[in-house]
Amino acid sequence: ETISVIGLGYIGLPTAAMFASRKINVIGVDVNQHAVDTINRGEIHIVEPDLDMIVSAAVSEGYLKAVLSPEPADAFLIAVPTPFLPSKEGEVPKPDLCYIEAACKAIAPVLKKGDLVILESTSPVGATEQMAKWLADIRTDLVFPQDAENKSDVNIAHCPERVLPGHVVRELVENDRVIGGMTAKCSERSVELYKTFVKGSCVITNARTAEMAKLTENSCRDVQIAFANELSIICDQLDIDVWELISLANRHPRINILQPGPGVGGHCIAVDPWFIVSKTPELAKLIHTARNVNDNKPDWVIDKVKIAIADYLQEYPSKSAKDVTIACYGLAFKPDIDDLRESPALSICKKIAITHPGRVIAVEPNIKSLSSDVENVVLFEFEKAETDADIHVLLVDHKEFKVSSKPRGIVIDTKGIW
Ligand code: SAJ
């Protein structure tokens, strides 16, 4: 049996490597020449603990190879991005399925009777049916599940990934999987395939429910974080310590409030709820509001910094704003990682640097240098920032900050650790 994985990014590459580690022939397909070359050397082009060893072994033992365009296989797993189409300010962002469509066009010519096609990418409800239609439009000689219940030539399913970046290798094996076949046979074939390395349960449902399940998980977390973020703004107004409040409320046996912060980042939780909102805009009111609450939190933090600057200048009337040094602690999108993509902490720091006439310092223990688009920000060691800055803005609860004591001066602590 040969498995082909289309898209060798954060999900596709680890998945391809897991199959290959079980001595299954895997053909990885990616349009990025650099990714293909790197993988064929036994190396990786993304950051994920333990993945390098698995890929290197799989390639050297001959079970994994990467190519630019699909070759025949028995199962195709599609793990390509599903980004947004560009939207105007205030409009609901809509998902862009162009990479799924391109993957369909690429694999259609090599599809044969008996093959299985699985969509792993996080997708709006209906995307799997759309994928089946794209394939059927090209391969009119094959029978697809939408036309023939359990008698189709090609089997199609949606099996969303739900692994946590940084723990992908473990979670791929241990997490339960939702298997949404377009027919019962499609589901059975998919379970058989995943069982080669998945130790968690493979739970069968239909494709639409599987699509919605993935979006529901991340929307649930987004709504819960929005609740915590709204509480933090209310408590600030009412002069109540929100972290003490949450820990008290969480002593109730049926309450479990998440933690407020500077906003919600990453490529999943801040994105997936929009897939529900754009599908059912009139109905998804709470999910839409939660997205706005979390998206507006960085601006609230920036306003707090402006107030702090004004307070400082009132205390030292001989100084002006350009004499005030601001330190931002943490730039990553969550603690103890080096991932700056879609990070509210980074966006807050950048925005402060654009408007503030004085010095802006950043402390980020997980990175060594800042990219050129982060202007007017200098990277400092914690100790130097602590002594140099007048206003200290804690944005990420990295372990290094948790063990250090609260800096002297004005402190804005968005994570409640100081
Ligand atoms: N955050 C808070 N308060 C909290 C928890 C998180 O503000 O109490 C913030 C974080 O700082 C971060 C953002 O939320 O900015 C998201 O972080 P996260 O750790 O909650 O999630 P991700 O984006 O790293 O991964 C999520 C996971 N989904 C869920 O936990 C429901 C993961 O299992 C998914 O596979 C992943 O999205 C994905 O790929 O969809």
TrEMBL record:
Record flagged with keyword NAD: yes
Domain of life of the organism encoding this protein: Bacteria
Alphabetical list of InterPro entries matching this protein: 6-PGluconate_DH-like_C_sf (IPR008927), NAD(P)-bd_dom_sf (IPR036291), UDP-Glc/GDP-Man (IPR017476), UDP-Glc/GDP-Man_DH_C (IPR014027), UDP-Glc/GDP-Man_DH_C_sf (IPR036220), UDP-Glc/GDP-Man_DH_dimer (IPR014026), UDP-Glc/GDP-Man_DH_N (IPR001732), UDP_ManNAc/GlcNAc_DH (IPR028359)
Keyword NAD: yes
Domain UDP-glucose/GDP-mannose dehydrogenase C-terminal: 327-417
UniProt keyword list: NAD, Oxidoreductase
Gene3D superfamilies with a match to the protein in the record: NAD(P)-binding Rossmann-like Domain
PANTHER family (UniProt xref): UDP-N-ACETYL-D-MANNOSAMINE DEHYDROGENASE
Family as reported in the entry's similarity comment: Belongs to the UDP-glucose/GDP-mannose dehydrogenase family.
Protein name: UDP-N-acetyl-D-mannosamine dehydrogenase
